[in-house]
């Protein structure tokens, strides 16, 4: 499909096909190859479904037209796989979305990218380090990709606002999750972009977050896990990156900190240790002169996904396509439903994270803790005193604090 330029009618047909019931990326590609175009595939799909003993609901022209008009009102565009502007690295994965909706500066999608992911309940040290990595990678010419989640994702996006960042949403572009990151989403569009494969109005569900994660890694030459528990959605992103042939990096941490378990595990399994941005830049340097689509250097950190795990799509069962990919629940929070609940149950006015969650085993200055918590210094000092008296934190020379063992 390389080098195509869709007409308006073809774009509408592509959108109708991918929005039809039980048509995921692999079914879409199979139908396009078999029938030569989306219009012919749509005509043939009801008969194919009947032969398989199913009845499928096709997306109507009016539904697709309404979505296209709504995206245009948001200032967005649809990019089709194979068109100029569609990210080359993303197109190389076998589950590349046929269409992506983009708002912001679409040209940032052409830049080499690095994904920064990690814990939503990150420590202040983790947030600070993620910001440092994002800034230094941005200065080196990389776009920063992440999933707009709380914690590490937010820190990565905020630190790369000036150099270019890409947010991948699990729901529609008008349904950002978590909702308190709506202002961040608006700001990042000034020099970056937000993308989604999901329809406008789509509120993300549990299985949509692994879908998003494979796009985060697919856009990027390398994925960096800054902080992650042993069972974490960030490890799902790392696993997808490895299966896509991309480099996987992990930031080491104290073996006594649960938020370091995931990264330490990745390093033990063969991920590249990352203690500074230079480690990423040096590893990716040989790939920058090559086509990102050819950058298949994954180290096969894990075996194939177990068959009993949940498919990411309810694909139509066609004989000439591979089974739908499955969510790597062994590394995720089966969890993702618990780790990232439906957006409808969230609040835009969530309180700041608990101070103890921001404090790790490494000494942290009061100034850094105040910045990370977004609380007044007086309140932080009072809370620290209570934590110190309870034995939860230790005070160090110079006023820094760390979590007690």
Descriptive terms for the model:
single chain; 405 residues; alpha/beta; Rossmann fold; Arc Repressor Mutant, subunit A; two-stranded antiparallel sheet; elongated
Q: Can you offer a commentary on this structure?
A:
The protein is an alpha/beta fold and 405 residues long. The protein folds into three domains: 8-71, no CATH class; 89-312 and 322-343, Rossmann fold, CATH 3.40.50.450; 355-403, Orthogonal Bundle (Arc Repressor Mutant, subunit A), CATH 1.10.10.10. Helix content is 39%, strand content 11%. The chain has 16 helices and eleven strands. α2 crosses α3 (38-51). The protein starts with 7 loop residues before the first helix and ends with a strand. The relative contact order is 0.12.
Quick overview of this protein structure:
The chain is of the alpha/beta class and 405 residues long. The chain has helices at 8-19, 25-35, 38-51, 61-73, 88-91, 124-139, 152-159, 182-188, 208-218, 233-243, 261-269, 277-288, 336-339, 355-358, 366-373, 377-389, and strands at residues 77-80, 99-104, 113-117, 143-146, 165-168, 193-196, 222-225, 247-250, 272-273, 393-395, 401-403. The longest helix has 16 residues, at 124-139.
